[in-house]
Design a protein that fits this description.
Strand content: 25-35%
Largest sheet: 8 strands, mixed
Distance between the termini: 132 Å
Low-confidence stretches: 31-36
Strand order of the largest sheet: 1-3-6-5-4-7-8-2
Number of helices: 2
Order of helices and strands: HEEEEEEEEH
Number of strands: 8
Mean pLDDT: 77
Radius of gyration: 33 Å
Length: 168
């Protein structure tokens, strides 16, 4: 009976190494490609009165520009904070005529037709207070009188201490 020559050595280890190398290359490249696959957007603060200001940001667009649109404020262009930033920023004022309730803010990477992501903005009832930083609200006459008396007492005590120092 004739002896058959041995078959070629198995190529399974070689195939396994090729598949492992290809998987490693794809895994190393995945974070770079996924960084721009799913942009994320924020609106801060998420709740504001009509006339108040909000900061908008979107990260992961992979573009140098974006726009945000909403029924609460219209359209705003976003741009990088500095030359190397992948996060795009803008700030805007909520319309004084904005209706109370939740408004969708749509971010479009690179402008119209670009990849979209949405966030929510809640417009509270009432208007934003300006000038005094919102520190002046409804005060009663009694509160004003007590505050005035405390201020006058502090002023009187200060004068008394200064006069006492001069006489000793």
């Amino acid at each position: 009976m004739p002896v058959k020559p041995l078959a070629k050595p198995p190529t399974a280890p070689r195939r396994l190494m090729t598949v492992a190398a290809a998987t490693l290359v794809l895994a190393a490249a995945a974070p770079a490609t996924l960084a721009y696959a799913f942009p994320s957007a924020t609106v801060s603060p998420t709740s504001v009165a009509p006339g108040g200001r909000v900061a908008l940001s979107v990260d992961g667009c992979g573009t140098r520009t974006a726009r945000a649109t909403s029924t609460a404020f219209g359209e705003v262009r976003l741009s990088p904070g500095n030359g190397n930033s992948s996060t795009l920023f803008a700030s805007t004022t909520v319309s004084r005529n904005a209706t109370t309730g939740t408004h969708r803010v749509t971010f479009e990477c690179g402008g119209p037709g670009g990849e979209r992501v949405t966030a929510s903005l809640y417009v509270t009832p009432g208007a934003a207070r300006g000038g005094t930083g919102g520190s002046v609200g409804s005060m009663s006459t009694g509160q004003i009188a007590v505050g005035g008396a405390l201020a006058a007492s502090a002023l009187g005590a200060g004068v008394w201490v200064l006069m006492r120092r001069r006489t000793t």
